[in-house]
Amino acid sequence: EDEDEEDDGKPKGIAHLIEIENPNRAKPVTKKASEVDVNQKRELSRREKEEIEKQRAKDSYDKLHAAGKTDQAKADLARLAEVRRKREEAAKKKEAQAAAALAAASKPRK
Question: Taking each helix axis from N to C terminus, what angle separates 71-106 and 46-67, rounded to the nearest 10 degrees?
Fold first, then answer.
């Protein structure tokens, strides 16, 4: 019983003497409210800069595309013109057929 009481109070080995600190662990840096400068501009990270540049490039391309200056826009406009031409031809053909059918219907039968 005397040995059990002694073990409770004393740590075993030398583990309690060694302090282990992980050098990769980031230590939290605390600043006082009076030390923080709210007017200071913070520098953008690489990812934020890349994202902004990507958005600018997309906006620029969209603007050129809307103006019809990109290769894709030119191809789209050419395809659209072809579709319009085919639709006009189909409408004229349908109109001619309708006129022919009306003329045939109004002809007296013998």
Answer: 40
- 88 pLDDT above the threshold of 50: yes
Q: What is the token pair recorded at 49?
A: 């800069």
- The helix, strand and coil proportions of the chain, stated in percent and rounded to the nearest 5, come to 60, 0, 40
Give the burial string for 6-17 (b: 16+ CB within 10 Å, else e): eeeeeeeeeeee
**Tokens found for residue 55:** 């958005």
Question: What's the pTM value of the predicted model, to 2 decimals?
Answer: 0.44
Residue burial 35-51, b: 16+ Cβ < 10 Å; e: rest: eeeeeeeeeeeeeeeee
- Burial classification of residue 60, based on how many CB atoms lie within 10 Å of its CB (0-12 exposed, 13-18 middle, 19 or more buried): exposed
